[in-house]
């Protein structure tokens, strides 16, 4: 939620709750071999989400947001125009196998004393299988992304569809007109309904059309209705603003 904010906040203090960047060792269980197995799960959960996203975006019904290379896809057995995103689909499926290994290992470790017990000879199969499949999924994901071609026009169209800047409009009403958010929410909903009836996006409404909903709306509102402005406005830590994205890229380059 914090990464979505546009309003100025104190990055270190929100009310009475101190916001801190968690250390990597705080995110992982401290349980010997169990830690090694569980460590793969957050990583593979992300791989599963990316595999799912790549599979969906390669689907012709999703406007070909990305184009996968032939190295990581195959043709359909019945539809000659279809390209199956094999690597993405297999990565998506691997999450069940790895989480299954995690559950099995946790059941073995449950209730054991703090010293070595013979039960723990059963941990090897789960850990090694999870590690092997995680490494395979990471290699497949790396290769698939390197060979992937993004359709910028389709992605830009998708990002701007569905009145995606409506929340930016509501926030502008709060900031510029000092309007309570509950009222801004109602005004924005009315403007969305107006745009739907006119068959256009919010940014394509004329100022006169907007002022029929609320007379105090000014030309400045158009400064927040583009996708680019919406993305750039998220300047809090981990936000989508290009400057914040570059900070995260550099952070992970330093760690890796």
Describe the protein's architecture and organization:
The model is unreliable at 12-20 and 24-39 (pLDDT under 50). α1 runs parallel beside α3 (123-147) and α2 packs antiparallel against α3. It contains 9 helices and 6 strands. With 256 residues, the chain is mainly α. It has helices at 33-58, 86-109, 123-147, 152-159, 166-177, 181-198, 207-211, 227-232, 242-255, and strands spanning 13-14, 17-18, 66-67, 74-75, 83-84, 149-150. A two-stranded antiparallel sheet has the order 1-2. The protein is 54% helix and 5% strand.
Helix and strand run: EEHEEEHHEHHHHHH
Distinct helical segment count: 9
Trace the largest sheet across and list its strands: 1-2
The poorly predicted ranges are 12-20, 24-39
Number of DSSP-assigned strands: 6
- Fraction in helix: 40-55%
Largest sheet: 2 strands, antiparallel
% residues in beta strands:
under 5%
If you average the pLDDT, what whole number results?
Answer: 81
Gyration radius, to the nearest Å? 24 Å
Overall 3D shape: elongated
N- to C-terminal separation? 26 Å
Classification by helices and strands: mainly alpha
């Amino acid at each position: 939620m914090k990464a979505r904010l546009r309003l100025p906040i104190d990055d270190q203090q929100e009310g009475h709750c101190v916001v801190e960047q968690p250390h990597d060792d705080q995110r992982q269980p401290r349980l010997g071999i169990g830690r090694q197995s569980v460590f793969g799960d957050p990583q593979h959960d992300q791989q599963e989400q990316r595999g799912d996203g790549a599979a969906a975006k390669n689907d012709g019904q999703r406007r070909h947001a990305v184009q996968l290379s032939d190295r990581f896809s195959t043709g359909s057995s019945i539809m000659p125009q279809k390209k199956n995103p094999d690597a993405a689909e297999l990565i998506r499926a691997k999450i069940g196998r790895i989480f299954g290994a995690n559950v099995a290992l946790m059941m073995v470790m449950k209730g054991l004393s703090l010293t070595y017990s013979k039960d723990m000879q059963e941990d090897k199969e789960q850990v090694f299988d999870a590690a092997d499949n995680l490494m395979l999924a990471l290699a497949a994901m790396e290769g698939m992304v390197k060979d992937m071609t993004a359709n910028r026009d389709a992605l830009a169209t998708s990002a701007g569809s569905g009145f995606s800047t409506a929340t930016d409009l509501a926030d502008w009403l709060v900031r510029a007109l000092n309007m309570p958010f509950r009222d801004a929410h109602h005004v924005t909903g009315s403007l969305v309904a107006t745009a739907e009836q006119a068959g256009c996006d919010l940014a394509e409404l004329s100022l006169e059309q907007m002022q029929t909903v609320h007379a105090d709306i000014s030309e400045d509102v158009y400064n927040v209705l583009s996708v680019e402005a919406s993305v750039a406005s998220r300047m809090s830590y981990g936000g989508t603003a290009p400057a914040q994205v570059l900070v995260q890229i550099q952070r992970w380059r330093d760690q890796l």
